[in-house]
Amino acid sequence: MSKILNVSKLRKTYQSGSGTLTVLDDITFSLESGETFAIVGPSGSGKTTLLGLCAGLDRPDSGTIELCGVEIDTLDEDKRALLRNRKVGFIFQDFQLLPTLTAMENVAVPLELQGVKNAQSRAVTLLEKVGLGARVHHYPSQLSGGEQQRVALARAFSNTPEILFADEPTGELDEETGQKIIELLFDLNKEAGTTLVIITHDMDLARKTQRILRLKGGKIHREEKVEVQ
Ligand code: ADP
């Protein structure tokens, strides 16, 4: 197995009115390709910030991040964007669908921007896979939260990412819909070997992964291997 993510001595601060807020401090861990990994911890412990850094959406104050064999913390914006487009998928807490595009367009447009041929038919196939074959021409406002999350999932799956970062992928969903989303995520891991990094408050979901990183106050509180049941 090879390392797909290698994080060393990460530190991240934000400036606020009352001074410097240290959000992450001395974070070191690594992930093997194909692993499933959960990040848990109380609100405000730095989970979303850590995900953004690992995915190259933000930069640390110090420390290094190697993603898919590339040191991303020193990479310029264009190269980071290229790496993300080719190898990384995201599922955000608030889905981040474009409201003026249909479900199909939300999936197809990023593919078209990457020069993928037959982007629209590929988008329809992906939407069918997540159970939205009858909703391809609907706009996000015409879809339920669970359906919007499935569009976000189809978009994240569209480039068969090597690693997928998901921030509370089931947070806003009812239990049944949440279960379906989780199944789809783990199917992608099994079928395509995509590494999963999932932020969650749901310990049942966390225990479905192979390893759990627990953050507390911006530091690693504990890292544990999940026993296979
Ligand atoms: P979690 O995901 O565990 O809830 P976050 O990473 O979202 O934690 O936030 C960690 C801390 O960083 C919180 O105190 C939050 O208010 C602060 N924070 C997050 N983003 C910013 C920002 N852009 N500017 C200032 N403070 C921020």
If you had to describe this structure to a student in words, what would you say it looks like?
This protein is α/β, with parallel strands linked by helices and 229 residues long. The protein has 7 helices and 10 strands. It has a single domain (3-225), classed as Rossmann fold (3-Layer(aba) Sandwich), CATH 3.40.50. 33% of the residues lie in helices and 30% in strands. Strands 6-7-8-3-9-10 form a 6-stranded mixed beta sheet, sandwiched between helices. Strands 2-1-4-5 form a 4-stranded antiparallel beta sheet, covered by helices on one side. The longest helix is centred in the C-terminal third of the chain and has 18 residues, at 175-192. The site of adenosine-5'-diphosphate (ADP) has 12 residues, from strand 1, strand 2 and helix 1.
Q: What is the gist of this entry?
A:
GO terms for molecular function: ATP binding. By secondary structure, this protein is an alpha/beta fold.
- Our count of domains comes out at 1
The count of strands amounts to: 10
Distance between the termini: 23 Å
Mean pLDDT across every amino acid position: 93
Protein name: ABC transporter ATP-binding protein
GO molecular function, one term: ATP binding
InterPro entries: AAA+_ATPase, ABC_transporter-like_ATP-bd, ABC_transporter-like_CS, ABC_transpr_LolD-like, MacB-like_ATP-bd, P-loop_NTPase
Pfam families: ABC_tran
List the helices and strands and how they pair.
Layout: E1 3-16, E2 19-32, E3 36-40, H1 47-54, E4 62-67, E5 70-71, H2 77-87, E6 88-91, H3 103-113, H4 119-129, H5 145-157, E7 163-167, H6 175-192, E8 195-199, H7 203-206, E9 211-216, E10 219-225
Parallel strand pairs: 3-8, 3-9, 6-7, 7-8
Antiparallel strand pairs: 1-2, 1-4, 4-5, 9-10
Helix pairs in contact: 3-4, 3-5, 4-5, 5-6
Adenosine-5'-diphosphate binds at residues 14, 16, 21, 23, 41, 43-49.
Domain ABC transporter: 5-228
Keywords: ATP-binding, Nucleotide-binding, Transport
GO molecular function, one term: ATP binding
